[in-house]
Amino acid sequence: MLKFLEKHWERVLFVVVGFALLGYSFWYLSRMQITEASVVFAMSFLSFIYSNLARFKRFKGLGFEAELWEDKQKEAADLIDRLKNVVSIYTREVILGKVMQGRWGGSDGGWKSHWKLYDELVDQHTKLGQHIDFSDLKQKLDAIFVFDMTSPLIQSVRKSILAAKTKASDKINKEFGSPIRDAAGYGKKIGQLNQAQEKIEDPFKISHEGDLARVVLDMANNSQISLKENFDIEVEFDPDTVEKLQVIANLHSKGPIAVTESLIALTEKH
Which in 201, 205, 248, 267 has the greatest CB count within 10 A? Predict the structure, then answer.
C-alpha cells in the first residue's frame, strides 16, 4: 500500500480531491443550489481527468505505443481546454446569477457576498493552474456594481431638481395667470422649464456602456444652470450625494474597480 502511494501519490491526491468536490456538489444539490452544484461537479470531473493523466504518464511502451501516448496527451490537453471553457462558463453564470438573484425577488446577500464569491472562484481556478481570463466578467460586475452604487444617488438628485422645477412652475402660473393671457410667452417658459432634465433614461444600460455617475452629474449641473438662468431659482443638492457621485465617476477612468468596504457601503439600502 505504501509503495503504491509513493509511486502514484499524485493520482491518489486528485482522486481524493475529486471525491471531496463531488460530495460538495451533492450537498449543494440537496440545498437546491443548482448553479453552485454544477460548478463544483465540473471541478470534480476535472480532478478525475487529472488523476487519469497521472496514470497515463506512467504508461511505458515502444514504437507505436510511444506515439499513442503522444496522441493521448494531445487529446487530454484538448479535453482539459474544453473543460476549462465549461468551468469558466459555469463560473460566470454562477456569479452573474447570484448578483441578479436579488433583483428577481430573492435574497442575494449583497455585494460583499458577491465579491467574496468572485474572489474565491477566481482564486480556486488559479490554484488549479487554470489561467482563465475573467476580465469580461469583471467588467460586467463592475457595471452592475456602479449601477447599484449610483441608483439611490440618482433619486436624491432627481428629488432636488423636481423641487426646484415645482417652484419654477409656480412662478410661471403666477406670471401668466388663469386663464393664460399670453399663450406664446407661456409656451416659451414651459419649454425653458422642460430643459431642466431630472430623469435618466435606462441607467442600467448606461452603466454598461459609459460613465453613469458622470451622466448624472452633468444632468444635475445643466439643470441647475437652466433653472438659475431662466427662473432665478437655485437647485439645492445634497453635498454628500454630489461627493459620492464624484467618487464613483472617478472610478470609471481607472479601469477595473478596486473594490473596498466604503464602495460596497454605497450599495447598501438604509
Answer: 248
Residue type, 29: L
At 151, the amino acid letter reads S
Instruction: For 19-34, write each residue's pLDDT tens digit.
Output: 776 776 777 666 666 6
The pLDDT tens digits of the residues spanning 78-126 come to: 766 666 666 667 777 778 888 877 665 545 568 888 888 888 888 877 7
What was the pLDDT predicted at 240? 96
Residue whose entry in the numeric block shows the C-alpha cell 478596486: 258
- Note the helical H segments in the chain: 2-30, 34-57, 64-101, 110-127, 135-176, 183-194, 203-209, 212-231, 239-252, 261-267
Residue in 258, 236, 237, 234 with CA at minimum distance from that of residue 247:
258
**Radius of gyration, CA atoms only, the chain:** 29
Looking at residue 17, its pLDDT comes to 67
DSSP string, 105-152: TS---HHHHHHHHHHHHHHHHHHTT-----HHHHHHHHHHHHHHHHHH
Are 39 and 121 a contacting pair, CB within 8 Å? yes
pTM here is 0.68
In this predicted structure, which of 68-77, 234-243, 250-259 has the lowest mean pLDDT? Answer: 68-77
Question: Which of 137, 152, 148 is CA-nearest to residue 263?
Answer: 148
Contact 94, 36 (CB under 8 A): yes
